Structures are given as structure tokens and as C-alpha cells.
Amino acid sequence: MEKMATRDAYGIALAELGKNNDNVVVVDADLSGSTKTSVFKKEFPERFFNIGIAEQNLMGCAAGLAAAGKIPFASTFAIFACGRAYDQIRNTIGYGCLNVKIAASHAGLTVGEDGGSHQMLEDIALMRAIPGMTVIVPADGEETKQAIVAASEYEGPVYIRLGRPKVPMIFDNSYKFEIGKAKLIEDGNDVSIIATGIMVGEALKAREELLKQGIKASVLNISTIKPLDKDAIIKEAQKSGAIITCEEHNINGGLGSAVAEVLVENCPIHMERVGVNDIFGRSGKPDELLEVYGLTAKHIAEKAVNLINKK
Amino acid sequence: MLTESTNMLTKKATEIRRNIIKMIGAAGSGHPGGSLSATDIVTYLYFKEMKVDANNPKWDERDRFVLSKGHAAPVLYAALAEKGFFPVKELLTLRQIDSKLQGHPDMKKVSGVEMSTGSLGTGFSTSIGMALAGKLDKRDSYIYVMLGDGELQEGQVWEAAMAASHYKLDNIIAILDNNGLQIDGNIEEVMNPYPIIDKWSAFGWDVIEIDGHDFESIEAGFKKAKETKGKPSILVAKTVKGKGVSFMENKANWHGSAPNKEEVDKALQELQA
């Protein structure tokens, strides 16, 4: 299967966007080679601003550029964007409802060897708690490319979560990404696997394993965590009566929490959350980390079987 | 400067100071000290210096003012109202439940407010972004940004200061309201930001010292700042916290306390045009 890192897709999409829209500008904090904004920088050096290792100022500059009519994409690692500069995102970009696109790479465990200090596992929770913030977690390269275009056309603050490693391509260009719309990739009545980001690929693998046991799972890709496609979640709950959420994020505050909120208010059913169980990450290879922290297809399938038994 | 112009500015500044006292008195909370220290500079900006149009607040070619020391919102609101951005009578709704005049400036609610501020250091950074956009668009307009001296303790200020000189942003003019006091006392005692002049010079800024309560000094400062090319300028303005109200002057405890009815009356008696 063809593979591509979502950050690579971002770099390509951003450079393409630069050609089509003169108002698109990029700010980065000394990580352009890693966030892939370097692709845009090469094409449009006059519209690229390296702010240096200064994430608070990165977000502030992006806010000022937006206030002056530009469409800034602000990039750094997710840990620095949402951690170091939370106040600037909350109080300047969010509170001012400014048209800034925060495209943060190296989110989650799959940063790998850099370890727990660099593995951002709380960004979805932090960003979705900000009023008016749109939160997008693309599953693959194609969805990333479309999400970048959609974010540029949408007026308001957007957080886009990107990853470091190459991940399988799930969609082709017949797919149509829409902000706020979940996508049912596979259907099934026994259990619903709701996944976001790189966990969508694992969810699809889990579905294959479950099929071998005669269990038909649906796989719902939720790439917009906020605003959340509540109807799609409720539909799955009513159909299968069992939901598993999968995210490369702390189980507290992320996709699992968002889905639980919808279920408890609308149609409480059995659910399980696959994610990092409220602990920090550590150094290791991405695959090793996903295994150690329980974020693989095997873990999803096991939880699915347990859940079905509870029904 | 023409005496006529100085007279006009003095009258406007007095009116703005009176409104600051009235609105904070009516609200029962707010920040009079730093609003009064900034009044003459803000008055000069809106009535002499900046290209702004109350009837066309989003005019592309306008100059922009960012109040990075957002707690001085009353001086900004009073100046905007005096300039015609919204009715002066609305000032008395400051901080009330249905008012657009929030405790700290909210760009979504108030015409003429260019940036939501309040968390210190953030506004200064946004002015750098605005100046970068101005350079890209080759606009003949300036970004003015006012900081407090206590605000210099925020690390973000120095991140932004470095970026402004790195990008040679001579379309940005910062003003430091150097009144020497912050909530907990003298700035030197709380966390000494001095030597302020040397710091800004070292960060690549053109530093211009002015008397923040003397319109001729203020005018000369902005004139010099606009002559500076290839780097940003900062006017370090010596000011008096609580300026114009004798019992508030140079008192840190008037940073964030509202005058009671008696104190409002006493202040207004002193502030006669």
C-alpha cells in the first residue's frame, strides 16, 4: 500500500495553495525542514517568515497577519504550538476569532525517539476546549491535502494535527473532504470503530482481523473533531450498539471524550476508548510505541470482542 | 507646534481623562492608573498622528494602534468614542453585562479596536504580524503599539522585539508607557527591567526618549521615529501613573482600583478643561 506522511502532504498542499492564493503566508519556528513548510518557502520566499525558536511570537505574528487580511499558516511541532503557545492561541487567535491556520506536525507518540517531552498527547483536548476553534486530524495524505485547502477557504481559526511517519494512503482523489463531516469507510452491524488520524489505518486492519472471527465492524473516520459530526456518531450507536474510539492521544479529552459526550447525551451504549492511558510517552520507534501503549489493530480487535460480549 | 493644536490636544486629553474616571467609577472596577499615564500619548495618536476614519474603520490604508497593555482599555475606549467610533454615552456601560466595552479590549465587539489584548506581551507580537503584512502589501501605513513597562517582564516581548529588528520593520512604532509602577509596586523592586534603553538598543531598535505628558516632546518623538529607516523605533515615554488626578499620581494601588463616588467628584474637579 502506498504510504505518505501527513506532514509531507501538508508541504505539497501548502505550496500548491501558495500558487492559487496570494494571501496565503506561512510562519514557522525554525522547524521548516521538519514541518515541511520548507516546500512553500522555496517557492514563495517573500511570503515565508521564519520567526525563530519563539512559539509565542509565532502565534502572535500569525494573528497580526490575519488581522491585516492574510491567511497565515503557522507551523511548528504540536508540542510547542499547543503547549508553549497555548495562551497565544487561546487569548489572541481564539478570543479574537482570527483567521489563522495552525498546522502542527509531529503530534502523538509516533514522533518516536525524541521521547515523551516531544510527544504531544493533549493537543486535541486543549484545542477543542477553545470556543470557535475548528479541529482537524487528517487520516492520510489525500485527506490532509484536501483539509488544507478547506481550511484556507474557511474563515476562522483552525487547528490541523499532522504526523511525522509515513502512513498508508486510505483515500484517493475521488474522496471529498468536508469540514465537520465524518466518513463511513466500511460498514458493519456488530461494532463501530470510530477513529481519527493515523489510527484510521489501524482501525481498518482491526476490521480485517475481526472479519476472520466472523465479526462485522464499521469504520468511521472522524477527521473533524470540532465541530463534531454528531449525527454520524448517533447513527453508528443506534446501528451497532457498541462503539470503540481510537486515537493517538491521551484517552482523556480527545476523540474518545468527544464521542462519549455525544453518546451520553443522546443514546448511551457500551463504549471503549483506545488511546494513551493518561501517561506520558517515551523514546522508541513509532511501531514499538504504538505496540507498548496499546494502539495497534490487535488492541482494537481485542477491545471489540470484549465490547460485543457486553452487549 | 502651533499653540492652537496643543490647546486642542490638551482639551481632548482632559476630556478623555474625565471619561476614564467616570467610566471606571460607574463600573466600580478597572484600571485608572495606567489609563491616565497613557492618555496624552493616546490622545496625540488619535487626534494628531494616525490615519484613521471612524466612518470607515476597516479602511485598508489606515494606521493601526494596538494597546498591548490591554488593561488600559478605558483610555482606548475614551479616545475611540471621542474620535466618533461609537457614542460617548456608551462609555458608562464599561464592564457591564450587556456592554461591548469589555474589561480588556475585544476586537470582535468594538469598532476601532484592532486587536484583542489583555494577556500581556501578546499584543506586541500581533503588531509585528501586522507590520509584516504591511511590508508585503507595500502599504504606506504605520503600526503603533503601546506597551507597559511592567509588561517588559513577559518573555514574549523580547521574542517580538527580536523579530521586528530582524525583519527591519520600520513601519512599526512602539511606545513604552514608562510610569515605573506595576500592581505589586515599583518595577525595579518587583522585577527590574532596567536598563530599558540599553535593552531595546541591543535588540536593534531605534530608541527615542520622550516626556509622555508633553505634546511637543511626543510630536518630536514620532517625527524622529518616522525618519528612522531600516529598523523599528520605540518611544520610551517617561510618564506618571495616575497623571492628572493628584491623589492617584505615582500610587501603585491605583493600578487596578476604582474610585468611589466621592473620589470621582474630587478627580473631576481637578480635571477641568
Automatic annotation (TrEMBL), chain A:
Q: Where is the Transketolase-like pyrimidine-binding domain?
A: 4-169
Which SMART domains does the record associate with it? Transket_pyr (SM00861)
Q: Which UniProt keywords apply?
A: Thiamine pyrophosphate
Q: Which cofactor does it need?
A: thiamine diphosphate
Q: Which SUPFAM superfamilies does this UniProt record tie to the protein?
A: Thiamin diphosphate-binding fold (THDP-binding) (SSF52518), TK C-terminal domain-like (SSF52922)
Checking InterPro entries in the record gives:
PDH/Transketolase, THDP-binding, Transketo_C/PFOR_II, Transketolase-like_Pyr-bd, Transketolase_C
Q: Indicate the family of this protein.
A: Belongs to the transketolase family.
This one is known as Transketolase subunit B
What is the organism of origin for this protein? Answer: Desulfonispora thiosulfatigenes DSM 11270
TrEMBL record, chain B:
Is Metal-binding a UniProt keyword of this protein?
A: yes
Task: Name one molecular function that GO assigns to this entry.
Answer: metal ion binding
Tell me the CDD domains matching this sequence: TPP_TK
* Any one Pfam family match given in the protein's UniProt record, by short name: Transketolase_N
Q: Mind telling me which InterPro entries this protein's record contains?
A: THDP-binding, Transketolase_CS, Transketolase_N
Q: Which UniProt keywords apply?
A: Metal-binding, Thiamine pyrophosphate, Transferase
Cite the record's Basic and acidic residues compositional bias ranges: 260-273
Q: Where is this region: Disordered?
A: 251-273
Give the protein's cofactors: thiamine diphosphate
All copies of domain Transketolase N-terminal, residue ranges: 13-269
The Swiss-Prot or TrEMBL record describes its family as follows:
Belongs to the transketolase family.
Task: Tell me the PANTHER family matching this sequence.
Answer: TRANSKETOLASE N-TERMINAL SECTION-RELATED
Protein name, UniProt field: Transketolase subunit A
